[in-house]
Design brief:
heterodimer; A: alpha/beta; Rossmann fold; 3 domains; 5-stranded parallel sheet; two-stranded antiparallel ribbon; 14 helices; 9 strands; globular; B: alpha/beta; 4-stranded parallel sheet; binds iron/sulfur cluster; binds FE2/S2 (inorganic) cluster
Amino acid sequence: MSDKPKFAMYWAASCGGCEIAVLNIHEKILDVDANFDVVFWPVAMDAKYKDVEAMEDGSILLTLFNGGIRNDENEHIAKLLRRKSKLLVAFGSCANEGCIPGLANLSPVGEIVTTAFNTVSTDNPNQIYPRTSFDTPEGEIHIPTLYPRLKTLDQVVDVDYYMPGCPPESHQIAAVIDLVVQVLQGKAQLPPKGAVIGAGTSTVCDECKRTRHVKTITSFKRIFGQPIDPSLCLLEQGIPCNGIATRDGCNARCPSAGAQCIGCYGPAEGVVDYGARLITGFASVIESNDPDQIDRILDGIPDPTGQFYRFNLAGSLMKAGVSAWKKEKV
Amino acid sequence: MNNEQFEPTIIGFTCNWCSYRAADLAGTARMKYPPNIRLIRLMCSGRLDPTFVFKALTNGADGVMITGCHPGECHYLEQNYKALRRFHLIRRTLQGLGVEPNRVKLVWASAAEGAKFTNEVKSFVEEIRALGPLNWGGAGGNGHRVETQIPEEVPA
Ligand code: SF4
Ligand code: SF4
Ligand code: FES
């Protein structure tokens, strides 16, 4: 085995996009290989959990952990990798703030299982559901147990750095790898523990090239089915753009491409609750003082919880809906 | 728990120039209102960051009362209208989370309306008592900090 520093990457409750984003750094991936010994990365190589368990504590230099903690397997590996790693990075929106899998925190766990195993898209006439343990002639087998709600990585273990994005932008990943390599060569220093890396310290609006004036919104609209000015701020046009509360770092990708920011880079620096910040912002630019008219304007945001917490529900102050807090048995 | 015996915890945000003085007036005039409400003074209802509401609800409050100067009378001109719009959005968001939107209430009270203030507190306490405890999963604190409690397991 080489004496290069060790690298690991893991996916918990996530979609796999973060892995693709890492592979998408093109030839930079060769820097990873040149500078690191990849010891564990289920999507890219064959390794068993027991291989990781056998490693010395703290022997992995850098672990990029993507995905939220939805079941006991996710939690077990999060704790295992925490023990084995010097630097544990919450990589991507799921690990940072729950992301789309975190939206399942609006439903009780029983409903989630039913939706997956017995709805219009799944023909299940015999009502077969997964069981957490099952006896076979070869012995008892186990599958992971679902938790009532998804947790972010730092709600379960201590995290050294946070790297936001759904997924993190490739140029940001490349920059972070460059930094770590420079640190290894003694040419740079690591940021303070707890820092957000691979992103900016302001908002998406700061990177957005669209022109803006005073915003006075009399109705909210969807982005399709009507002419949208290609150079004017989308929020000003009544498109609910989340750029105002979202951390910069993506070069304002969505507004540059003609779509509103939906907030995948998570809360901007200093924001405690992402949705609360958006509520403050949207409420400030609605042009009406009349309760009934305000109600009519707000009907233009049919799903406020989804609008304000699409990526951030599990990491928000409320963390979940009522039904996920109620411990429901299936 | 029987809802009759349940004593709700309510956080009230008051504006320095009107509702806080209304509460003060109620006090000096010895008007009685239930002790369930804990008042926090802001300079203006426009300072009411929705974060405060979510923080209150996730740290044990069963209801939140937001108060401010009557429309047109805010000492910072338009801020109570912003509070009004935030209030609407907070309620809609809570509804999406399955929380009764009536756990958050907005009241306009001038400095002279000590009696109105006490009546609003009284009726709100009864409304929240009827809704029962919120018990927000024992989840408190900053959304980005580690929780120490052991996760409940639910077999799927
Ligand atoms: S609100 Fe959206 S469109 Fe407007 S400046 Fe910000 S990011 Fe750009
Ligand atoms: S504009 Fe918003 S949603 Fe789009 S990539 Fe950037 S942070 Fe994510
Ligand atoms: S000063 Fe009282 S609400 Fe603004």
